[in-house]
Amino acid sequence: METYFSIKPLLAVLVSLIAVVLIVIPNQRPNVRESWTIMAAIAKCAIVLSMLPSVLQGNYPAITLLTISPGISLALKVDSLGILFALSASVLWILTSFFSIGYVRGVPEHKQTRYFASFAVCLSATMGIAFAANLLTLVIFYEILTIATYPLVIHKETPEAISAGRKYLVYLLTGGTFLLFALALTYQLSGSVDFRAGGIIPEQVSKSSVILLSILFLLSFGFKSAIMPLHSWLPTAMVAPTPVSALLHAVAVVKAGVFGFARAIGFIIGPQLLHDSGASGYLAGLTAATIIIASLIALRQDNLKMRLAYSTVGHLSYIVLGITMLSASGWTGGLLHMVNHAVMKITLFFCAGAIYVRTNCKNVSEMNGIGRQMPITMGAFALVSIGLAGMPPVNGFISKWYLVQGALDVGQMALVATFLLSGVLNAGYFFSIVVRAFFFRSDKFTKFGEASPLMVIPLVLTAIFALWLGIFPNQFPNLFQLAARVASNVLGGGGL
Amino acid sequence: MSSLSILTLAPLLLFAFIATLVGIWRLKWAYFTAIIGVVLSLIAASTGLFRVLKEGELRHFLGGWPPPFGIEYVLDHLSAFMVIIIVFIGLIAVVYPPEAGLYQTPRKGVPMYGLLMLLIAGLVGVVITGDLFNLFVFLEIYSLASYALITLGGDRAVVASFRYLVLGTIAGSFYLLGVGFIYFSTGTLNMADAARLLPPLYGSPAIMAAVALIVIGMGIKMALFPLHVWLPDAHSYAPPVVAAVLAAIQIEVAAYVIIRMLLTVFQPQYFIEVLPVTTIIGWVAAVGIIFGSVMAIAQKEFKRMLAYSTVAQVSYIGLGIGLANPLGLIGGLLHILNHAFMKSSLFLVAGGIKYQTGLHEIPQFAGLGRKMPLMMTAFTVAALSMVGIPPTCGFFSKWYLILGGLEANNWVFVAVILASSLLNAVYFFRVIEKIFAVKPSNELSAEVERAKEPSARILVPILILAAGIIVLGFINAVIVTQVLKPVVALL
Fold first, then answer.
1. Do B389 and A165 touch (CB under 8 A)?
2. CB contact set of A126 (below 8 Å; sequence gap of 6+)
3. Which residue of B325, B376, B399, B416 is the best one to mutate when testing the A interface, meaning the one whose CB has the most A CBs within 10 A?
């Protein structure tokens, strides 16, 4: 694994910050303002894609900016794991930007400048998290992400939104506080905070310290990745506009938490120490419980966005479970699911947004026969539901296959059963919507009438992505190769 | 030998009198005269810092009399660090327009700039002097100036100022008594000389009493819980600029005196192991952090909330002293700098709001974010720094303090620091939410409706401080390695 100096990681972080400056210029026409967002999104995606070939060859672009604390630098490095996360976030930002424009003009929302500016800051922070070369850099961007999302959560400024914002802050700042503790303890135990595949905590560290560190990481990243019982901010935050839920609460913010787990377990504590301390078993149990409970709650939700939120809670725990199983297949499956779930869930949120803008429906029970009015939207919804239930040919099947493989590798039949049961439950809560939409009838939806193309085209594209990644997992952008490489680097080929 | 130390002090003292005299003749010119004086001092202070970084300690014998006979002024890493903070914040305070910062335009007969500069001069004097008694003199100079300045805040401020005067005088007397004991035991008032003569006397009850008296006296000045009772009134009724100076640099100077005693006058081991001074300060500070934060949550009045927040924040510095290891003390010292920027910008924002709208209670602030976006953005930056969100500077003082806590294996202190960031979040996000989260359809109060962004004279100092909060976060490693590492090397 070679690294070489490149300014590209920094540019990928900065490009959306520059966009923020341009967005907040007062008194410009909305079309001009939105064009900054679109340009920044495309530029960011192009920068990330341009780094992909060299990362695939094992050449990692890296840049060290300045010393931020004696012995620790503010440094960015694009490795296989980082680019997986960055790719999904930056590609989906382009689509979300178009979708957002359609959404905020369709509803219409107020304070759109603040909305687009906050969005751009969030994306910068996400890139920073993806490319952080050490834990301190990650913490800095992680906290920026927490704060920058707050204006988006309270965007509607209703009492409900404001109280959701409070809950969001209480949960996520508490997580941030534990993260600071974990960071300091890491530094204390190992004298360094640089990420290294296989971990940096020295072997002679006592078992209790490793357990404490694991608990602290669980309490810090567990909030953003919504592991029960730390999850309840996520459904509450669904009060935010739908594009926010789509990109941030299905892709960027929650995946930052999951990504943090991957960094903490694979690159700080190290699988061997975690396994020896026995903490991984408890983590796996907690996430398995989250998967089942969240799916059961999702079944009972009538509000479509809430159902999607609980489904997200469940699927995030797939990923964390894959990581904590500490087997190569589990890691591969978990990391693939990080991207696959992002593509699928964003499609569903786009669908929910399009339905809301076009028909003002929020609840599943009002959606009888909606497939007649919005066949394209609901078609995409149906396709992606298949994937989330873990069935071929959609990409969810691939990641689930490896997750189950990982569970079999470590000989945990209970985890295999968890994945299978969750698949059934997913099918239950998603297919019921599809059945309502296409096979029930109502007088409300008789004529064809889709939402604006700005909203429909993005959701069709993400559905096509989901299909593409399901049929050709190792074609462009070679997600499988990236995930498998991370797994073998972290676990040294085999597993534990 | 270098006279740079005295050169930072002289322009302040001199221009304090010039500004007062000019004020009698032409009131407006006093403002500019004062600015010239502080700028001269700032130039000397910066030069001093660079010289110290290059050459180490700079000493000046006043009147050419060598110590222990004459008074000595010393610019070392610690005092150069303090001086530059004091003079910089002092400059911001003097530049900030008096109608917003002091509640009134200068009047004949009230030497406002003279007092403000005497206050700054006294603070600089305490920090650069190498003489225990001379320190007391400057202590009284800055205290007297601050008593007078607080009263500019109106009727309630007069009462608050009197309470502060009583307690401040007691504090000063405690310090003087302590110095008296040291003088009777060693026969010297020079710090370096005393440091040489004291070790054989460490067992003597007189020296132990001296330590207790000095630390308690400075504990009052520093508003260390439970000696903080004077602070909330004095700081919330004082005019914004005075409150900014009091909170941002004045109480920190008392912390400096304790650190100076710990590091220079006595051997650190005496305070850490022989007498449990640092341990007591640390635990008292830990209680103070929680107490101050909880009280701040309970306040409706904006400046009063900031005042209680100061009680909590100065305890961070106390906690750094209490940890008594290099990382912890770095955290405490860095927090002196960070807190100076944060708290002064917050008080200046309070002044700006009051001047523009007449409002001072948090519930009345609804919708201000729309009317004065720039000032409220600056406020948000300072508030986030108080909470400790990276990359603002407030994060880094917490980072070093936590590292120090882990180093000392003191998990309670670590928990206190972590808990306090959450408490800070509660009372600052309450304000942020009030200011920004208001629907355009909601009706705003008449005062807020009329409000608009303040003039550049109010805005620029605030924006400079806010920008400083972010810049300090990024350059904190430079400050720590260049300036603070040599200081804590004495531990």
1. no
2. A85, A86, A89, A141, A145, A252, A256
3. B399
